[in-house]
Amino acid sequence: MTNTETSATLTAASTSKTLRGEPKGRTGLARILLGRDAVMIGLLLVTIVLFALFIPRFASPLTVGFLLLDVIPVLLIAMPMTLIIITGEIDLSVASIAGLTSASLGVMWAAGFDMNTAILLSILIGVAAGAFNGVLIAFVGLPSLAVTIGTLALFRGLALVVIGDNAVANFPPEYNAFVTSKLGATGIPTVMIGVLAVVAVFGVLLHFTPFGRGLYAMGYSKEAARFVGIDVVKSKFWLYVASGGVSALAGIYWTLRYSSARSDNATGLELTVVAAVLLGGVSIFGGRGSIPGVFASVLLIGTINYALRLGRVSEVVLVIVTGALLIVSVVTPSIGAALRRLGHERRIRRELPRSDGPGPTGA
Amino acid sequence: MNLSLKQRGRRRLALAGSIVSIAALALAGCASGGTGGGDAAEGGEDLTITFIPKQLNNPYTDVVLGGGEEGASAAGFASSQVVGPLDASASSQVSFINAETQAGTNVIVIAANDPDAVCPALEEARSGGAKIVAFDSDTNPDCRDVFVSQVVAKDVALIQLELISEQIGGEGEIAILSATANATNQNEWIAFMEEELASNPDYADIELVTKVYGDDDDTKSFQEAQGLMQAYPDLKGIISPTTVGIAATARYLSTSEYKGQVALTGLGLPNEMRPFVKDGTVTEFALWDPAQLGYVSAFAGQALADGTITGAEGDTFEAGDLGEREVGADGIVIVGPPTVFNADNIDDYDF
Amino acid sequence: MSTTTSQIAPPRRSRLSGLLRARELPVSIALIALVGLTYAANPLFLSPQGTKDLLLNATIMIILAAGQTLVIITRNIDLSVGSILGLVAFGTGSLFANVEGIPIWAVFAIGIVFGAVLGAVNGLLVTLAGVPALVITLGTLYIFRGVNNWWAGGTQYFADDRPDAFGGLAVDTLFGFPIITLIAIVVVVVLAVALAGTRAGRDLYAIGSDPAAARLFGIAIGRRVFFAFLANGMLAGLAGVLYAARFNSVGATTGTGMELNVVAAAVVGGVAIFGGSGSVVGAGLGALLLTTITGALTALRVDKFWQQAIVGVLILTAILIDRVASIRTARRLKTGAASEEKK
To answer: Mind telling me which residue stretches traverse the membrane in this protein (chain C) (predicted)?
Structure first.
């Protein structure tokens, strides 16, 4: 009897903790204005204004073009990565998938395939690679961190097998030109239209569909998600398929932008993407995060990056700034949360003098 | 699409959209205030030059850039800058070129990590009025004005073959330990070596058994060297046409039973190779003076910018203390012959 | 994954040793098979020089994997180890170059303390702020690397700058074993004993199996996790000093990209990525297997382009075996509990 009583208070306490730690309600204007997203977007705008004022030549359509061309691969891959991390999983193999598609595209083109066919087949290769991850993680139930470290090595290895030490460069010029072309005088690259479409699809999927709400539920608790009727296995599988497909798009973009297909294209991009997603307010434990926040975060890192280059500040500074931003961004809210939690626990203890206030599980 | 969305959702989307468009507007609006890129300076007094090496924080690069900075001030550039990536990957140089394009730099001097990956960006810089000098490692010839090469590529290849042939007595198995599999200059030298091995009767008894790549990484090169010894027990010599590779291989040989048994030569920095020459691991190796490479590049850039040369074959320009240089076929400028270092002369050099 | 580990956790005390042994078995078999096959094809692989190289190559990775195991067992991860190693290795080089006649033991001590300080930064951020280690150490990976770049610039220190006795550590042998490999073995043995035989060591498993239960049990989670990071930092520091002894140059990029290899070595060695199980010995064997495979493939003259793909397959196989093993163990524990009840 006492047992059930304690467990009841336990559940009550932990639920109220979750609610308190979160802004109330997942939709609504208030959340946008006060939440993490708003902070990120505000930070981005302030950064842009400051740079425009203090860095000579920053405020120019050229900046818009070069900057966006630089961030597109990260922006693309960050979309499925956001959804995956929200479910409490991770995908470290994305950059290797991009490398593998880049290598395959080059080899197929060199072998005389029609360019459009080669691009289509490369996307299919990316989708297949994603499905391979998905099967191991969703159906077999292996931990995603470990699996994708393995496929990170495997897919990069296959890229090497496919293209070896060759580089394919002579892609049709119209394809290269299209990738770097701009929309009139705005400086915005034409491909941004497609990229924004991808962002919109993932944004709608995450924030406005039952599927998206299911992902948050999975991030909080897989058991609970299954209990309320979410097909955890299938959802996860399709996320990895999507991640593979989008990584393939990034790989193709990479190949055409640099007009160079090599086995080492996009090496190390996975950590950049994860860093951008986490900076955008996505919790590594799952259950929290949003597309606007990640979008702003990718642009923020890209802007700082480009401005520093324009100001000829060494990349060393950028590396340190990225790391520091990442840490500050997670430490600040958690200090706030810790203070709130402390107050909350004290209140609970006051109200329920006999029960030991159970702490959160923490790290 | 909006019909299926809930009311609140639509508002949120609209807000996010408007923030993005405000940001875009802000950028575009400020644009009129900016100077834009590529306005070439009129007089020779305020010309700017920027060096983009393969990778920053690399000892060989530092020597090259030291010479470059010296050349830039001697040639009369108003400002000279060094920017570049921390990693030597194919695409990492592109955003630096973009930033320089936008900064309106007059001369960009670049050592390409990938001959093609940098091309579109360099084309854009040229259309903005910048002159492009490739040095150390060439880009695709279509997207630069001149290439300042250490030495004639074929000479570098041949001198390394001569050295190894001498050291192994003209016969036996040899292997090549190179930088990355895509490195332009290394691959060119290797191609010349293979051609020469196949055609020159003096080398008929030398067999090139394999090529391995240490990726210009100390650890990886070290382990590749080690793997070579096991895979090819009869190996007589190694050619490593890269400063990182030869030093790592020398380090392995000098700490193993193969010291003195397996010959090693290639391209190395005297300061890095000194202990291995003194302890007998390495007899002779070659290199040019990296500082001169940077020095000549700066003068080539100056000559291009003020219109003295166009990069056509037969053009000549003054390269400061080093005297006149001529542009050869394919827009290639040769700095000078390689130097061979051995126990007798290595102490005379400090780089 | 977490459900299976928490099922195994309760009868831990009696079954722990058997369970651990089972987890090390697959990697041992793979290692023996690999070495055996390679030796059969190319006897030079196990020549005195070949064996020595094999052990020397694995040494640094073994030490890093052992340290990483401590952290992973507590359901954390340290991605900054490559950056720590780089900083300490460069620090070692600059100590020898700038402090005339500094004794070698002092360099080791300073290197380990330096590593400990960096590890403590990770540990403090993770425990005090209660933030996931993956995020924190991804951040410090960048920061430490940035500091290294800023500190070193284009400077590199070469083997020539260091005393011969120091470089000799990486070559000299004792009873046929390279001295630095013996150091690595001592590290593994000490950690293995500490993990299995001390209260603090067992606490680490408890924290990783079920943090909430560990807290209810009265385990000082924060302090234990902090010390795991501290110890990992010390070991990365030790590895950094040894790196400087073994390799020719240390500079701004030393140790770049090592982190995922270290985690991979631990995973291949049967350390569960979500904590609570695995052993230092297994991780050490995993490191040995991964470094051996590169050497073995070269000795077998397998096309170098296949090497990385094979490493990937190996990692996936290890996780699969681990999964099968843990399902089987869980089943065995269930039936075992049932039969005990019958008695």
So the answer is: 25-42, 54-72, 79-96, 102-118, 125-144, 175-196, 225-245, 257-274, 281-299, 305-325
